[in-house]
Amino acid sequence: xxxxxxxxxxxxxxxxxxxxxxxxxxxxxxxxxxxxxxxxxxxxxxxxxxxxxxxxxxxxxxxxxxxxxxxxxxxxxxxxxxxxxxxxxxxxxxxxxxxxxxxxxxxxxxxxxxxxxxxxxxxxxxxxxxxxxxxxxxxxxxxxxxxxxxxxxxxxxxxxxxxxxxxxxxxxxxxxxxxxxxxxxxxxxxxxxxxxxxxxxxxxxxxxxxxxxxxxxxxxxxxxxxxxxxxxxxxxxxxxxxxxxxxxxxxxxxxxxxxxxxxxxxxxxxxxxxxxxxxxxxxxxxxxxxxxxxxxxxxxxxxxxxxxxxxxxxxxxxxxxxxxxxxxxxxxxxxxxxxxxxxxxxxxxxxxxxxxxxxxxxxxxxxxxxxxxxxxxxxxxxxxxxxxxxxxxxxxxxxxxxxxxxxxxxxxxxxxxxxxxxxxxxxxxxxxxxxxxxxxxxxxxxxxxxxx
Length: 452
Prior knowledge:
Blueprint (H helix, E strand, L loop, with lengths): L11 H23 L7 H13 L11 H11 L9 E2 L8 H13 L10 H17 L4 E5 L2 H16 L4 E5 L5 H8 L6 E3 L8 H10 L4 E6 L11 H11 L2 E5 L24 E5 L11 E5 L13 H4 L1 H5 L18 H36 L3 E3 L7 E6 L4 H14 L3 E7 L2 E7 L7 H14 L3
Parallel strand pairs: 1-11, 3-4, 3-5, 5-6, 6-7
Antiparallel strand pairs: 2-8, 7-8, 9-10, 10-12, 11-12
Helix pairs in contact: 1-3, 2-3, 4-12, 5-12, 6-7, 8-9, 12-14
């Protein structure tokens, strides 16, 4: 067996072309074999199928058919976010143009820890991050792996500016990564502010800011994981201004509304935040990861500055080579910005806004079907594209059981959320190609599998 070909270089295209045909054929074969949004049989069955396909994963002699076999197995055993009945999580089906751009990023393989490894990619990243920062009223943005890293970075930047006594205040509805960030960074236990209606209560926040010694960091949410709710950002921003308090907004889900003329008003007050987390692998339809953290004061980024002579020596930076090491807590870092840049340029604000409007409208349609069906109860009209519903008269155990039954059969993928002291089924609608008939089919599946 000769030396395996490389993906880039003068012969890279010739080596890749037949392999891409193999991958596309395997994806098609695996998808047809799966036949639905999720492989049937549950974890043990799926694991057995994968183990059978993989065989000896590190044989003495290589298997030239491994690409076809393993891609087929992965596709057959995948949860397909592009399937209209796969609606559990904030897990969007990626756009074809974004996936194609991601292939180019993998082939070229720049690493954004020094300019000499990523000359064009670093210049493109600067353009994209500044453009996205302007959308939130900020000055700059960092590329992250998603909302968790963005939230942790926001807490880190606040700690470095205000000291280790910083107190984080967040609503009961906040993402789990925020309180976890305080533990990882050695900060005091965060203050949990009531969110009786599912959103942070500004009056309770004001009371906590008055009562608890600072310095403070307030974290609000624009698009909660459970119900897609948006905290009252203008009122929260006013309270923060009155107390001289730093504000972070976790808009990992909701920030995509900025692209929509119809829905961007829901994010009024976002521009008052010191930092904002946003994910384009949610309402941006990017392959994971595609996270960003926007920063209003670029001086905050000094907290990430570090000198490593082999990456950003003083004489190199003095000579004009950009210093990339302060752009992330990671060192080796792939050019995730390329897929985002291609998508933004290809679709423009109007195209992205149309996708956002489509899934928000879809959620409204689904909520309407639930509300008019005598066998189901709707929690509340959707704010973004998440709908909570449950069979009328069902116990929490029954709600949990119907979800697991649908998962086990591979017929549908729904999430779960607890609200108002009860367990609800959660449909997170992120597929702009889904139609009303798909929604009716989803509801019929739930009805048909609910234990009575």
